[in-house]
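Readers outside the structure-tokenisation community will struggle with the description of the input data as it stands. What matters is that the chain and its backbone geometry are given together, residue for residue. For illustration, here is how one protein appears when written out as sequence plus structure tokens:

…
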Amino acid sequence: MQRVAVVAQPGIRSFDLAVITEVWGPDRSRFGVPPFELRRCALEPGPISLPGGLSLAPDRGLDWLAAADLVVVPALADPEDPTPEPVLAALREAHARGVPIAALCAGAFVLAEAGLLEGRRAVTHWSLAPRLAARHPGVLVEDAPLYVEDGGLWTSAGVASGIDLCLHLVREAHGAEAAAAIARSMVTGPFRAGAHAQYLDRPVPAADRTAEALAAVRERALRCLDQPLDVATLARWAGMAPRTFARHFVAATGTTPHRWLLDHRLDEARKLLERTDHPVPEVARRAGFTSEVTFRQHFTSYVGLGPRAYRAASVAPTAAPNTRDSVRKGS
């Protein structure tokens, strides 16, 4: 039984706490998910006030972190609120013992305050990344990925990416089928790779024509993923030379045009496998892969299961046949 400790302190975000509780709290043994022991660990006994008039009753002290297999740190509503030194010390001690620690969203500020992220890669919500970098200049802050790991310390971007990280941690410990079963019960996608860019364009001036052109290219590409697309084609749509386009694309999204296309094609394939009964070769074609062999290789590397095994693990029995999910709008 995996033991999961939540670091509970006044002001933690209710959404983060709910995500952690939903992933590791329920008994899903009938779906083949191993049992977890989830404990809410606090500095002092007694109810803890949460934003929105809610409260939380801790059931363990900070000493339980020593018994945990995983420690999860929810974000504080105000990320720059100080964390008591005994809590920071408990986190440092857990990390020194080799316990993995995961911080959701602005929980990265807590790990940075404990000194654990010094010289390490970390991510938080894209709008908070400049504040984290300014407050803790020794942290290697990234603002593109959904989640990253460095030295046994996991950090995630905003809101929904906390779900992605929690499911990834289940996948790491117990395999893709357990993570897919939890995701299915939560009615959420079972997998988004950490390297996915956060699905929000950075705020840019209205007059920034380059940003507008890149956003238009991404939106157009998402409408025709099943067609042959390459960097030269995307650059032509933007009215740029390929090398110039690629440079601006990386600056705007945090990833290369090729990687961006591949990730979105794999995500489209994942949805087709979950929600349709199309044969695997047809899924590959509709997702824009000219070779079924290449598709299988990329998909297996991306998800950890082959297409057929993924479908068997992820598709609900009531999935309607031959219904294609609409193309994702956004970045």
Notes: The chain has 13 helices and eleven strands. Residues 199-207, 316-331 have pLDDT under 50 and may be disordered. The first strand starts at residue 2 and ends at 7. Residues 289 and 295 are 6 Å apart (CA to CA).
